[in-house]
Structure formats: C-alpha cells, structure tokens
Amino acid sequence: MEQTRTWRPPYELDLRLTLGQLQRGNSDPTYRTAPDGSVWRSARTPDGPCALRITASRATGEVTGQAWGPGAAWQLDRLPALLGADDDPDAFPSHHHPLLHDAFRQRRGMRMPRTDLVLAALIPSILEQKVTTIEARKAFKLLVHWHGEPAPGPVPDGLRVIPDAATWARIPTWDWHRAGVDHKRSRTIMEAVRVAPALERTAAATRQEASRLLKLVPGIGVWTTAETMQRSHGDPDALSVGDLHLCKQVGYALTGTPADDPRMLELLEPYRGHRHRAALLIRMAGPRTPRRAPRFAPRDYSRI
C-alpha cells in the first residue's frame, strides 16, 4: 500500500545534487532518476524494505514522498533528514577561496543527505577500498542483483533492495569471487555484518562517537569511515583522507599544485566542520589534475 508525505523545505533545495550524493554510479540498482525528474530509492529500513519516489514542485517548493513496503512509514518520517534538513550550509566559510565561493553560490540548493542507515552506506564503501570505481560499482550491482530482492511497489524496472546483514553473511565464497571482490574486502564486510545491530545504533550517536566506533571494526579505517559518515550521518566534515585522487585535485584547485593528504588537510583547515563539503564542491567545479602516470587498471579477481 502506498504511503505519502508532502513537506515544504524551509530552504532552497536541489533534489538532484542532494540525493545524487547517495548514488553509486549510473548502474546503482538501488537508485533511479526518472525522465520527469523524480528520484527513486530503495532502502532496507529497521522495519523492512521500502521503495521511495521523491518529486519536487518548482511552483510551490513542496516535496512529495511516495513510499511502498514495510519500511514506508520509517522512511517518510525521515524524509526531511534525507533531504538535508539537518545540514547547515550557511555555516560554510566559502570566502576563503574564490573557486569555492563561486562553486558554493552556484550550488546553494545542495544539502548533505542523511540516511540513518549505516550498513547500507558502509558496504559499498568497503567494496570501493583500494580498487577502481568501475570494479567497485560492478561488484555492488552484481551482489545486489544476486542476493538482494525486488523493491516493493510500482517501481522502475531493476530497482532492488540491498540484502540484509544475515544474507550478506551467507554469500558464498564463489559469488564474491565472481563479482570480483578479493578476500580482504569480503572479510571486512563479514566483520561488519557480524556487528550490524551495533553499527546501526551509531546512527543515533554523535558524529565523533560514530566515527570512533566504525573504526573499531577490523578493515575499516579513516577513508571508509568518512565515505560512510557522509551518507549515513550527512556529515559535512567527513573528509575522505586516503583517496588516491582527492588530495591531488584539492591541491591543484586551490594552489595550482597537486597535494598529498597532509597538505590537503592544511589547505582545508579553514573549512573545518565542512571539509567534505569543500572537497565535494572542488570535485564538482574545480579543474582536473593533469595526469602524468598510467591509470590504475582494473583487476579481474574472478580469474585469480
């Protein structure tokens, strides 16, 4: 049965830029953008799976959420947080650099979305550890296709719900192998799903405490924690330290010279509290770092 909620954000909202931060590439089986501009997401909530369709009216500024499945009420209750109601972009000190000032002004409607679903943000982040984006997104698509379930309701073709923790734990070794996931990443996911209830409870913790607890799981470090917190907690300061390309791009955009992680931290210190927001704006609007080395080639673990 369909459930509906209409909400008028008390701020400018760009639906595409806000929710697009949750999409894991164009092949993400849990996310769709429809030709009419509406956004579809599936989620596995504490009450069960759901599908959510979100539309925004330019005429009234209202946002409408339509949801199906056992988790519909849970998801609609959190619709404002999903659309950045907990975010405070006005506190972003954009004046420190003209590039960020202009990028921020042009994207005033971009908010930090908060899902309150930790495992759903964590597992794709683990899959992205130390591999190319192409490899990680392919693995996520295959594993959700094989072990997830169709999203409830009249949803777009192919929209699926990620597996629950028990199902992730039962994925056989050969399916990880077929999806191109090496033993280190699959083992880290097993460690995470083993303590899934505790991880989900960190959605109610402070950002500092949630970050600390996530890093207690073997195989989860600073980068994976940041990539998770950006989505589960809508953390505008969760900077992806350890990213192969981010530090170079931040350095090049702000100084004209690629940087390493320590230098990136120095450059983004004036934006503390919003360092992820600053890095995201640079990724969107900054100049690309010239490549002087071969690209990191995808590896086929299914043949190893």
TrEMBL record:
GO CC annotations, alphabetized: cytoplasm; protein-DNA complex
Cited InterPro entries: Alkylbase_DNA_Glycosylase/TA (IPR051912), DNA_glycosylase (IPR011257)
UniProtKB keywords: DNA damage, DNA repair
Superkingdom of the organism of origin: Bacteria
Annotated GO biological process: base-excision repair, AP site formation; DNA alkylation repair
One of the record's GO molecular function terms: DNA-3-methyladenine glycosylase activity
Protein name according to UniProt: DNA-3-methyladenine glycosylase 2 family protein
